[in-house]
Amino acid sequence: MRSVYDWMMRMSAGPNAPWALALVSFLESSIFPIPPDVMLVPMVLSDRSKAWRHATVATVASVIGGMAGYAIGYFLFELIGNPVLNFYGYGGKFDTVTAWFRDWGVWILIAKGWTPFPYKVLTILAGAAKMDLLSFTVASIVARAMRFFLVAALLYFFGEPIRDFIEKRLTLVTTAFVVALIGGFVTLKYLV
Question: How many domains does the chain have?
Answer without folding.
Answer: 1
